[in-house]
Queue: 3 jobs
Job 1
Amino acid sequence: MTPGVAGGRDPGLQPERTRLAWRRTTLASTVVAVLAGKAGLAGGASVGVWV
């Protein structure tokens, strides 16, 4: 192993990790919103109540 590579950080990877984290967060939020909407509509609430 090269001493510079073993303990060093790659600053180019941080933006990619940040994008992936935001993508996961957005996907999870979307799934929760869709499931909450589905549960609300199945419970008898009208679309007007949600809006």
Job 2
Amino acid sequence: MAVVEELIRSESNGAISFGNHKLEKKAKLEDYQHAGDLLKVKTFKEITKLEKNGSFLYESVPGTSVLDFTEKADGVEFIVEGDEDTQITIGLADDKAYEVFVDGESIGAIKTKFGGKLSLSVELETAGEVPVKIVQI
């Protein structure tokens, strides 16, 4: 299990890793620079949130550790880890349809509304690390 001890870090492949679902107390890091953007992370066992340039990007309840989070023109990809099943909300484009893959299996298409938020559940309690891929269709 790989929590992100430094709360957020840039990976050599251009991705970021963030969050620490093992923390008992809230921790945050603001103004983290990555690829020309300013990121802010808040994390602990109950919630993990990520903002990019002041806008919502990721939230999980309860908290998670997120590895290799990559934004692409047509969606996002990451590996999520936690101690229990989690509800994840991702900030994407408004009024678009996305196919969501959890652990390599499609869970179907989800359409965002105004505000561009997409929510999904991921079973983590017995799974360890689970890959998630969200692709615009």
Job 3
Amino acid sequence: MSKSPLDVLIAPVLTEKALMLHRDGKYTFYVRKDANKIDIKRAVEQVFNVKVTKVYTSYVRGKQKRRGYNVYRTPDKKKAIVQLAPGQHIELIEGV
């Protein structure tokens, strides 16, 4: 099943640690849970017009939250760290 690139990428991760990885040419995104590394690589290359050399994926477990006596969990997420070819960067995220 072929997925649209915009369906694979959910949102960029803009935490302090993720922004520090930009110096090494690594960018972090939340992706669909059923997306594999090949889908993620194709999506980033098509959307941002860059060359991806490596893709690292991990699962982020949801956290337990509490509001008063109500206890619930936030949803689990899949995170991908994408390494670009030397000399390339994503303009949209660099400006943050």
